[in-house]
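Deliverable D4.2, example record:
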Amino acid sequence: MSEEYKQAAMKWYYKPVWIVVAILAAGPFALPLVWLSPALKLWHKVLLTIAMVAVTVWMARATVDICRSIMKQMADLQGVLQ
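Output generated by the structure prediction step:
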């Protein structure tokens, strides 16, 4: 099979453009599309997975830090109001 035929026969949601849109919209929930896509090479899949895991961990840690900061500010405010 020619490369053009494979691209034409590929479902729209496996195309790299739509995978990027899915990653931006759904984050790590789009990783199955990455791994099932025949358009991406193995190193692309591994790189995208590592990047997505790193971003997810970073955002989770940032969320915990923000929650701690808000809780401290609330406690400080409660002490001022009493």
